[in-house]
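User: Can you model how nicotinamide-adenine-dinucleotide sits in this protein?
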Amino acid sequence: MAAHLRLRGALSLVTGGGSGIGRAICVRLAQEGAVVAIADCDEVGAAKTLQGLPPGDHEALPVDVGCAKSVGDLVARIQARYSRPATVCVNCAGITMDEFLLKQSEEAFDAVLRVNLKGTFLVTQAVARALVASNAPGGSIINMGSVVGKVGNLGQVNYAASKAGVEALSKTAAKELARYNIRCNTILPGFIRSPMTDKVPQKVLDKFAAMVPLGRLGEPEDVADVCAFLASEDSRYITGASVEVTGGLFI
Ligand code: NAD
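Assistant: Here's the modeled complex, given as structure tokens:
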């Protein structure tokens, strides 16, 4: 539970806010006093997240992060609704389409890169443009990578490549945007319980849980707490960093 309101009044945009880790991030940011724009292609999921937030001027908005027009519309709607750009942006929308390299289709590769990597690019670019245009005093962009982007994972050639790309994108954005006092960091979760990992066979989850030094799989709240720190001024001298939230897996 948040002990203080580090994000009082900060307007934050969370993509993928309609489920799992993104939903926990929306809750945590709102607990810290932020106003949250919950963006997801699953409008039912986003509305459910909205219902669970502490009181505030929050809104659920539809977006397909892989489509530049849709992302442009989202940022324009936020500007029109709140008369200011989001100063905290969390890119959490993501998908998996797992298959071994030898069997992976071009379609599955393209689809995962489109959401995870291109989606992060489009939202980061649109939010940064809005911040620079508004002369806002700064901002914090937090991108969801994965430890799998560092070490690879069986059956996830597309996903691992997309998440390695997210990390490189974030470091480059950090270098380019620092002059505007916009920070950009990546969180690298390990295995976190969510609808995404519900698709993973139990025996695989058990295998990974046994490998985690802290002895358990992660919960969405474990990631959300780190996200709130990176969103807040407590991390004001951190940019271009990748923070592993893995319970020690793969160290
Ligand atoms: P999830 O499936 O519960 O949530 C993903 C959300 O993204 C869903 O609400 C979905 O509707 C949304 N989404 C998918 N495509 C979209 C699009 N084109 N436009 C807008 N929204 C879209 O998964 P999760 O476990 O909460 O994962 C959240 C993020 O964390 C993802 O980027 C994922 O890759 C990353 N991650 C998860 C784990 C884990 O173990 N769960 C580990 C490492 C990284």
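A couple of observations from the model: The chain has a mean pLDDT of 97. Residues 11-245 form a domain with the Rossmann fold fold (CATH 3.40.50.720).
User: Helpful, thanks.
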